[in-house]
Amino acid sequence: MAHHEIERTYTPPPQAPVPDLTELPGVAQVGPPVVTDLEAAYVDTPDLRLVRAGISLRRRTGGTDAGWHLKLPVGEGRDELRRPLTTGTTPPQQLRTLVAARVGEEPLVVVANVLTRRTTQELLDADGAVLAELVDDEVTGSPGPGLAGETSPGAVTVWREWELELVTAGTDLLEAADEHLAELGVEVAAVSRKIEVVLGEALARAATAPGRPGRGKPAGRLVELRLQQQVEELLRRETEIRRGGARGVHQARVACRRIRSALATYRPLLDREVTEPVREELRWLAGELGGARDAEVVHDLLRQRVVDLPAEQVVGPVRIRLHSTYGASRRADVVAVLDSPRCRALWPVLQELAACPPLAEGAELPARKVAVPRVDRDVARVEKAVERVVDGLDRLARSDDDPAGVEVRREVEEAWHDARKAAKRLRYAAEVLEPAWGKRARRLTRTAKAITQRLGERQDTEITRRHLLDLARAATAAGESAFTYGVLHAREQARAEELETAFLDAWPRTRSRLRKQARALA
Predict the structure, then answer these.
(1) What residues contact 312, with CB distance under 8 A and at least 6 apart?
(2) Which of 161, 212, 334, 490 is the most exposed place for a label (fewest CB within 10 A)?
(3) Which residues pair with 8 in a beta bridge?
(4) Is the pTM of this model over 0.70?
(5) Among 337-346, 367-376, 428-437, where is mean pLDDT lowest?
(6) CA 287 to CA 278: how far, in whole Å?
(7) Which of 339, 507, 329 lies closest to 415 in space, CA to CA?
């Protein structure tokens, strides 16, 4: 069972009465107060890996939702996954699996105990529908025995807080509540999670939150920040994949690429003996994820292409074959990859990489001196790949020798592929500089992204054509007509040629823009 919560936490004075909230837009009445006593034991690794990632895992008794709760940050709020209450403090396997990549071999222990006297009131509209719930919590919390560090398990924190959780209302109700309560002297809480209040000092010691690096700061700081962000993103997407999220596979693949790009572009700032094996493992993982992702993309694209065809050009059971080939979910295959020993061994390596990057001596130099030249190299890499495309097309235009033409076409296709990869690497390299260079780096990022998208569309046509050939062979072997797959193949070929022409026509202006934006970073 899952529940998405969007809420706001406030810090009222100790004796402040709950104000009349019928002044909020849409609130016609407030339901009677209901008092409940709750007791929660929060479990985590001794070094608080879950709490630091914004995740809460607890065993709660009391109230109507007693049981195990796993809260994951999603969008504007959090998804709360619930499982029935069990004896002891070992979480159910279903919840442990969702945090396994973060936890690794570390034990899950009780890191905090929280007692709450909760008074709940429903905010209702004129028809009696529940818009939101306001809870007035009197809280007593203490660190648990499993917490690492010097915090005494006997330390007790007592406080009061209000929580306004949306039920059917939109976020505009929270904004109105912020203004209304601020007029009464009640401010939005600086810390919204109870577990963070209880573990304040211990959490501060365990946290590695980075500051904003400046252009004159060591270059390694930018790389460190990037690795922290993208390893966290990859771990978050791993959980999303396990939950069946539609974009989890794609975003996990992107995170792999961003980490690999940072380790490649900025390799002089790092110990390559440590980072090169990590790059290879990320290449493997991205490749494993790529099979499922490519099948999804091709299926969606071909379904739309068939819809766009005139009815008389759809010959045979084309839609049935597409569904039988691509319709089955690949999620089980992807989860099997995540559960593999090779992948399980990768997670702690990545977390160590993010927590303590193996910086080399050059990482202590100012970012302007060592990071910017690396971006310049990536700009040059894009230019050289496009030059190879243009040169190959010129050779094809002059060649009457078909065997030579086949080889040149292969070289041109490789050059297009290299240009797309180089543009993507440039985009990711520029993103690394954004915390320090701001809009100047973002301009370069946007240009590189636009190149990547155009070349990515062309790459999609190439992948789709390969799939269409496979589909045509399978249809022929089954005694079906391959006519429609041939029509689609020709259309994809024409689409590729249109994209290539448009890209090359715009390339002189695009190249000039790239050079100008790269110079602006110097």
Answers:
(1) none
(2) 212
(3) 164
(4) yes
(5) 367-376
(6) 14
(7) 507
